[in-house]
Amino acid sequence: MSKKQAILDAALKLFTENGARATSTKSIAAEANTSEALIFKHYGSKDQLLEAILKKAYQAAALETNLYLKGLTAIKYISNMIELPILLTRSNPGFWEMQYKIMALNPISARYHENFMRPCQVRLAECFRELNYSNPDLEAELLLIHIDGIWKYFAAQKLDFDKEKALIECMKQKYKL
User: Fold this and answer.
1) pTM above 0.70?
2) From CA 40, how far away is CA 44, in angstroms rounded?
3) Cβ neighbours around 120 below 10 Å, total
4) N or C: the chain end with fewer CB closer than 10 Å?
5) pLDDT average, residue stretch 19-33
6) Would you tell me how many other CB atoms lie within 10 Å of the CB of residue 136?
7) pLDDT in tens, 93-109
8) b/e for 34-60, b at 16 or more Cβ within 10 A?
9) CA angle 89, 172, 99 (to 5 degrees)
């Protein structure tokens, strides 16, 4: 593993355990078994290090999401969006746990998440419009609020797969999917 990757891994671990504000570059360097100077050389600052973690994880999540949601009918898109929290939190659990813990207090983290979710809201509204819902924009927003709560719950609770699947199936039943 490269030192650069070791720094990213150490930062992710410590940001998850302690939060971004409470984690020092000194503690990241110690965890990564490297020097603080190397952190600054590769990333410039702690905020830029956090942004590197966010960028990398959201790029991976966007790729995974696009593959999972591309070219679907309206009903299948909504169904897959409901399943998305399982897919994402299972594929990168450490990142989503960190994101759950820091997003409320970190504007960089919140911005990345908002940018990631924006295209989903547009597509969901189109789907609800296609399915003749009376207020497709609000329906899309409501579903995204629910999905946002679900991934946070999954990230925080470390549920077993059967429980996650049961919650998702219950939600699908509400939409008659």
Assistant:
1) yes
2) 4
3) 18
4) N
5) 94
6) 17
7) 999 999 999 999 899 99
8) beeeebeebbeebeebbbbbbeebbee
9) 20
